[in-house]
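ok trying again, last paste got cut off:
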Amino acid sequence: MTAAQPRIVSLICSATEIVAALGHRDGLVGRSHECDFPPGVEALPVLTEPRFDTGGTSADIDRRVKDILGAGLAVYDIDERQLQELAPDVIVTQDQCDVCAVSLADVEKAVCGWTGRDTRVVSLKPEKLADLWDDIGAVARAVGAEDKGARLVADLKERMADLSDKAQTLGERPRTAIIEWIDPLMTGGNWMPELVNLAGGENLLSEPGKHSEWITWEALADADPEVIVVSPCGYGIDRAASEMGSLEARPGWADLSAVRNGRVAIADGHHFFNRPGPRLAESLEILAEILHPDAFDFGWKGRGWVAPPAGGDR
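nice, full thing came through this time. structure:
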């Protein structure tokens, strides 16, 4: 007789994708407000919501979030009553970034008063690719899928290594800047520099395993990247494209090497890149297409990334 799947609540998008990749999609009973993959998870009860208006420009959002953090408040609310009613066996959350999702402290506070239920809280803190492999293992152990977790990690590593082996033979290593936020400017850190290097590029303005950093416009201009990938955290392609005007209005934007040579790309930072889950393999494929379009074509252009629209077309 097959054992019943544990009841799982995922409070971060990447964890939802990990759970599904481990074959436990049917065990999910609740999700965060942003979890939207794999298709169908949108029907699950939503347990979190932001305390700020997520509309407006990147500058508007940055100001609202900083105001909340400055007041010592949590960025997200959690529905404690519904969480308890769902009676999860496992809750997966994170303590990597207070801005990305509900915090570990808030989850622990929500469950500390429960009685008569043994609920396991798994907190993920990915800062580099090696941490993703550890996180997959931690979730796999919590849901009783250790063998599947080991196979998933092995498959992802092999897939990414095969791509990287080819990329390293190409000779050219374009100097690349990943823009993780538009206003103010932020460069992609953590696992992003590793992805750039694996895809056959030279990463600029951030370091592997370190948090994404705010930078000045002057720092980007001085670095003069050969490739710029605009992939704001939480932004799909259309929303990122709608804010390209604020970059293009910067004095000297048109003089950057990447701009002059038509090597600026807008990538989906919502579903890829900023979700440290199994789809970082797809993120690597997207980067490889952008950096080496003559060598790689996985079919992501138009879906995972696009060239910026002409100024009058936005």
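cool. The chain has two domains: 8-125, 170-306. The chain has twelve helices and 13 strands.
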